[in-house]
Amino acid sequence: MLGLVGDHGVLTMPEAQVEMGINADSRRISQKERNGQLAQALKDAALGGGSPEEMAERLARLVEERGLVAKAYTHHDLMHGEPADSFAVLFRNSHYPGRAWGPLSRWGVEVRFGEGDLVSFPTGTNHESTYWYDRHVAMIFLGAAVAPGTWDVPVYTVDFAPTLAGLAGIPIPEDLDGRRLRVQTARVAPPVNAMEGAESTVNADDDRTELSALRTESSPYSRDGPSLADR
Fold first, then answer.
1. How many other C-beta atoms can be found within 10 angstroms of the C-beta atom of residue 65?
2. What is the tens place of the pLDDT at every residue in 84-120?
3. Angle 202-228-110 from CA coordinates, rounded to 5°
């Protein structure tokens, strides 16, 4: 039994998006230049003084007003009250206090650049955004018990392990993230040493350039969450 799944998608290069007519507004933005603009906004926001929450709120509004990002979210807003939009849900799911990784995370702000935009190097592409093209990945199961076919419905990467375990007849811990998926299966004769009572089908359960002059010594990191939002 073999299972394959991606941990993330990738952005089609902005130049290709424009040429292919996918997104005429897609842009490649110099990471060094954009980080310099974010650093200037940070300095300007700090001039107003106040609490860290007040500074974060000013900073979020400044980078939006200057057109440096499509949307900015303060950590306070992510953790309290109703999400501002579906992307805020993804940022909240990924947020772990003290381990955020964005260019303004240390000052209590997460930023979302425009859809199709790439803040990166002069060539190539990258991932790390909350847009669908970075979140949608293929999940493939291959083996004697799996019949050919496709299942074009939303699933989560955390569903991979319990589904593969189910196909292999391996018990699944109750506290494991994810769910077993109903995949197309073919009934096959179990091997001689197969686990007694193992199931033959699956049941449904249901330059990254830093703002180095303004950063502290620590280097927090935020993990990507498994959630999907509507495109």
1. 10
2. 999 999 999 989 888 878 999 999 999 999 999 999 8
3. 145
Q: What is the predicted pLDDT for the residue at 99? A: 83
Domain ranges of the chain: 11-126, 138-205
Report how far residue 152's alpha carbon sits from residue 182's, in angstroms, rounded to the nearest whole number: 12
- 3-state secondary structure (DSSP) of residue 5: strand
End-to-end Cα, the chain, rounded Å: 32
Instruction: Note every long-range contact of 72-79, with CB atoms under 8 Å and residues 24 or more positions apart, other chains counting.
Output: 72/104, 72/109, 72/110, 72/111, 72/112, 73/109, 73/110, 73/111, 73/112, 74/108, 74/109, 75/100, 75/108, 75/109, 75/110, 76/108, 78/110
Q: Name the residue among 90, 97, 96 with its Cα closest to residue 112.
A: 90
- Give the DSSP H or E segment for 2: strand 2-5
